[in-house]
Amino acid sequence: MSSTDTRLPAIVLAGAPADPEMAAKYAIENRAELPIAGKTMIQHVVDALSASLHVTDIRIIGNIDCTGDVKHVEPRETLIDNLIAGAEACSDADRILVSTSDIPAVTREAIDDFIGRCTDPDVDFFYPVVTREDSERRFPGVKRTYARMAEGTFTGGNIMLFRRRFMLENGDTIREVIRQRKSITKLARLLGIGVMIRAVVAQTIWPGAMHLADLERVAGRILNARIKAVPTPYAEIAADVDRLEQAADIERCL
Questions:
Q1: Model-level pTM?
Q2: Domains of the chain
Q3: Is pLDDT at 170 greater than 70 in this prediction?
Q4: Count of CB atoms within 10 A of residue 175's CB?
Q5: Mean pLDDT computed over 49-76
Q6: CB-based burial label for 156 (10 Å; 0-12, 13-18, 19+)
Q7: Helix axes 212-223, 193-204, angle to 10 degrees
Q8: pLDDT value for 206
Q9: Whole-angstrom Cα distance, residue 217 to residue 72?
């Protein structure tokens, strides 16, 4: 898969409810409807996807209105179920781009750069990571959650690219991982105690204890797939908004 001839359908996840403060201030039910810089968050995302050189069509998982050439897919109960619904709707695709609807700063350049980095034909799931330096340079003062690794300190992005077959075949496994994430005992059994210890050491004492490749191998073993973390300099991909103070910060930066 070369970056010059890549053509992908995109699905936008738009099912997250607005928190009480958002709902009260803007009379909205869904976070995707939050207005920022003159447009709803989902409209910012759809506009960037529509301008992309590599996106062929856009499907919104949820009943959220926006302008543009988009199709809607009826939402289901959970995040994984919505991803499966999107994969089922893109029946002719081998690979699918996924975006959340709460990254209003995202641009065509950021999307095309990420797609252009996802070139390995053997990888089932690509996930972007952004360094703390790039994130804070683009959005000074905006708080994010970071993880220390041997290669640097990263935050995760809100756009993914996966093989359609991967999502359809691994839904039950992903659900089980999500169910076990809050139990240390179950999580240690799933990841392996050695990985758990190295992850704690990396966050507290020595970042060199954990590499991006280590996480790729663990995730790949659990899901029986090839997983790839993709460093990108475009912090817009990771600038999600789930609180009003974040919305104000992002609007100021825009």
A1: 0.91
A2: 8-253 (3.90.550.10)
A3: yes
A4: 14
A5: 95
A6: middle
A7: 150
A8: 84
A9: 35
